[in-house]
Amino acid sequence: MIDAHFHIWRLGRNDCAWPTPDLGAIHRDHELAEIATLARAAGVASAILVQSQASERDTRWLLEVAKGSDFIVGVVGWADLTATNIGERLDALAHAGPLVGMRPMTEGCADDWFDAPAIDAGLTALVERGLTFDALIRPRHLASLDRLAARHPTLPVMIDHAAKPSIGIDREAWRDALAPLAMRPNIMCKLSGLMTELAPDGSADDLPPYIADLLALFGPERLVWGSDWPVLNLRGDYAEWLACARAAVPATDQPAVFDDNARRFYGLEAA
């Protein structure tokens, strides 16, 4: 089993500026040893490490950590996709460790961020190097991301955290906005980050309808499970989220959702 989305950070080092002190539950250093122990106890054998800072310095650190680990099978990093020398930057990062993709920090950006022509050269550079694109977004970005996927039909795009729906609010509108993207063969979706979108009085019991929607839209062949640890700890814990997801995904679909799809999307060797 693969955890396709987790983070580590050291506050104040490697350009780490987030989480801020108001996020008390996660405002501390989070190291690889902690998550590796936690995940393996839950039956997770390997994982994809994802950037949490808009910094190449942070990405280089993540790649260095990954090189020395038998738990991390790939790193989704950050680089300025609008840089004139983006190809050289990607090559340097790929040389530093097991880079599998890039993730710009876009959830706080304008609704039409993905329409910007300035990012197209960077996206083409990803395709040329066999790298993927993780989209950290909100539902309001979905239309723009759909247009990006149309412009770059060979770019593998992963929607992180199912576009962060507000659980219990406008579920139908979220599902309808996702539907056109689910029709595109180059787009997949992460079954992750949903617990932190729960209403203040919500619980894991509110999540199965959303998971059912994702299975109906993307099918079990284009849905990928991830923990989003340690951000997950703001509203739940590793074992609770894994149990919730496994209970909502039919047993026959679990090998794909919890392992095979991540390997295929990120270009990893079969287990």
From TrEMBL:
Q: Which family does it belong to?
A: Belongs to the metallo-dependent hydrolases superfamily.
Residue ranges of every copy of the Amidohydrolase-related domain listed in the record: 2-268
Domain of life of the organism encoding this protein: Bacteria
Q: Which Gene3D superfamilies match?
A: Metal-dependent hydrolases
Q: Which InterPro entries match?
A: Amidohydro-rel, Metal_Hydrolase, Metallo-dep_Lactonases
Name this protein carries in UniProt: Amidohydrolase family protein
Q: Which organism is it from?
A: Sphingomonas oligophenolica
